[in-house]
Design the sequence.
């Protein structure tokens, strides 16, 4: 069927009007007031608060509206995540959420009364992944091993003799080591260090090994007080350039890193999410931002909302399976 020029113009105008209708009228000028950025950890704590403040400053400059960090600490990030889930989906409240609060803790409670009250895959929309947090497989210098294969052989020859530390039950460092155990049939005793650092006990040999945040141990590795066998993320870290990755050591499927992203409450208009994602990625591409993150032993990331959503789903599937196989529960 052929159309006249007048019919074609009329259809084009109708399509344009329909497209404009999908863009919220208040989004065209977004943002028109300050944006609240929820940080789920205390001021100055670890790398989370400095990262939020660094990106808030840079995003505020390009958005031409202040991005104000609001610290809501507690329960390993769960309180801040709950605050974000309750916020109005108007684009003016966003938050940092990490792998623990999205893909671990909500699934480690079998008792319904202990559930967080929100669904990590229904109550948030992803904006962008902002950082990867490198982990290291380290051993006490008391162990006679110098690489991952020697460690696996030693543990297999002595089932139940050795122990590993984690940051606490159902944390990433816990489930990551459990995955290592499951993949290689290892019998290693878990010792959670939820309220005190494990590093002194690792150095003395009271606990023998750990998959642990790199920032906590790099100085001790450099001083020879701990032995780093491998980075668990996909690439080496320039903080310890001679330390290989697990992939380089022959464990091609063992790629694990902590990560955090920016999210908005479910229902936030996609047009606003796209604006926030664009300005987040702009900030992450700045050389001074990348340098400051590197100084904190962090890897600047950056991903689209769809890529972030896919990551959350993959990580949830992986860690839930590992946790069920290891019978991990927070109840």
Sequence:
């Amino acid at each position: 069927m052929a159309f006249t020029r007048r019919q074609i113009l009329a259809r084009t105008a109708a399509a344009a009007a329909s497209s404009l209708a999908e863009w919220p009228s208040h989004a065209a000028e977004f943002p028109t007031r300050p944006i609240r950025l929820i940080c789920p950890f205390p001021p100055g704590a670890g790398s989370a608060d400095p990262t939020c403040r660094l990106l808030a400053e840079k995003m505020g400059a390009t958005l031409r509206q202040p991005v104000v960090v609001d610290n809501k600490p507690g329960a390993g990030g769960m309180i801040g995540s709950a605050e974000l889930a309750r916020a109005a989906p108007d684009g003016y409240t966003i938050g940092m959420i990490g792998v623990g609060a999205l893909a671990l803790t909500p699934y480690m409670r079998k008792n319904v009364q202990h559930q967080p009250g929100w669904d990590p895959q229904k109550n948030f929309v992803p904006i962008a992944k902002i950082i990867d947090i490198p982990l290291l497989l380290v051993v006490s210098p008391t162990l006679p091993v110098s690489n991952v294969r020697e460690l696996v052989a030693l543990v297999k020859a002595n089932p139940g003799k050795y122990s590993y530390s984690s940051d606490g039950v159902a944390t990433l460092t816990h489930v990551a080591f459990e995955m290592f155990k499951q993949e290689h049939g290892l019998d290693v005793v878990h010792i959670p260090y939820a309220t005190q650092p494990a590093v002194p006990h690792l150095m003395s040999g009271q606990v023998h090994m750990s998959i642990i945040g790199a920032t906590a141990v790099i100085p001790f590795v450099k001083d020879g007080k701990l032995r780093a066998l491998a980075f668990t993320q996909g690439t080496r870290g320039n903080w310890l350039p001679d330390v290989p990755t697990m992939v380089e050591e022959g464990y091609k499927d063992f790629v694990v890193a902590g990560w955090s992203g920016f999210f908005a409450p479910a229902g936030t208009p996609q047009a606003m999410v796209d604006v926030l994602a664009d300005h987040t990625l702009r900030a992450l591409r700045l050389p001074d931002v990348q340098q400051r993150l590197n100084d904190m032993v962090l890897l600047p990331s950056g991903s689209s909302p769809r890529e972030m959503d896919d990551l959350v789903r993959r990580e949830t599937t992986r860690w839930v399976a590992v946790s069920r196989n290891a019978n991990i529960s927070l109840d």
Remarks:
- The two ends are 66 Å apart (CA to CA).
